[in-house]
Amino acid sequence: MFGYVVPLRGELKVWELDAYQAAYCGLCHTLGRRYGFLPRLLLSYDFAFLSMLLSTESARPITQRRRCIACPIKGKQVCRESLSLDIAADESVILTYWKLMDGVADASFWKGLPSRLLVLLLRPSYHRAAKRRPDFDSWTAACLEELRFLEKERSGSLDRTADTFARILRAAAPSTGTSDRDRAVGQLLYHVGRWIYLTDAWDDLAEDRSRGTYNPVAARWPDGPEGHREELRTTLRHSLNLAVSACHLTDFGPWSGIVLNILCLGLPMVEESVFRGEWRKRKKETNGRMSYERSV
């Protein structure tokens, strides 16, 4: 995924910060248990967030200390095995595989060579994940094919392109049989997905221009997106407001405070950093692992 979905850590309670880190590390161990070492390199804050949304625990998560490559001696506290972590791990492998396939299709042979290599290495894990989550796999493939068509025709519609990606994330929450909760979680993921797609489009604007590749923001405003910055940020705020509204329609148990922190503080912080042109620099300075201790 993209790594945009993070909390503002300084505003979390101590136990919430510990629980968030345990969920993140728990997802890493789940990827290793189900798929081996390579998929653990695909670990994403975004899918750690998904595991919290899918959790049905009513009490604070139970953790256990486990060693890992990042902390081989002391180890770290990780959330115990759960269905929500299994789903998040499976779907992260599927979405990453199809995103890599999309990159292979869009690039020349030499430029797409790194993606081709990763596809080959990831393929065995992908096949296992696709067998476990066939509905999500087929839906993701169909939506990305639709998105590829819109990109080829250089669509200037932000709504059509963002909607296609947002529907993938909405489908990441399998039905639980509780219609009210399913609807709320689906709407939350849809609007977060829409926000991710458009934020990423702005973040990639300079790079896409230099490469001459399609960018939905540039296609929407061919006269220069910079003059329409506030228009884009208005629709981003609208998506976040709808995600927060959906969040209030159900109960996420012990994860509720963390989920609200991410939606109300973390994502606005990331958005501000992206629009200031600071996001990529900050990620490089911390090797892609941001501390997010204070607002920008």
The N- and C-terminal alpha carbons lie at a distance of 23 Å
User: What's the number of domains?
Assistant: 1
Structural class: mainly alpha
Looking at the structure, the CATH topology is: Farnesyl Diphosphate Synthase
* CATH class (first level) name: Mainly Alpha
| Strand-residue proportion | under 5%
Mean pLDDT over all positions? 90
Structure description:
This protein has 296 residues and is mainly α. It has one domain (9-285): Farnesyl Diphosphate Synthase. It is built from twelve helices and two strands. It has helices spanning 14-35, 45-54, 83-106, 113-132, 134-152, 158-170, 179-203, 205-211, 216-220, 229-247, 256-275, 279-285, and strands at residues 63-66, 76-79. Strands 1-2 form a two-stranded antiparallel ribbon. Helix 6 crosses helix 7 (179-203). The two termini are 23 Å apart.
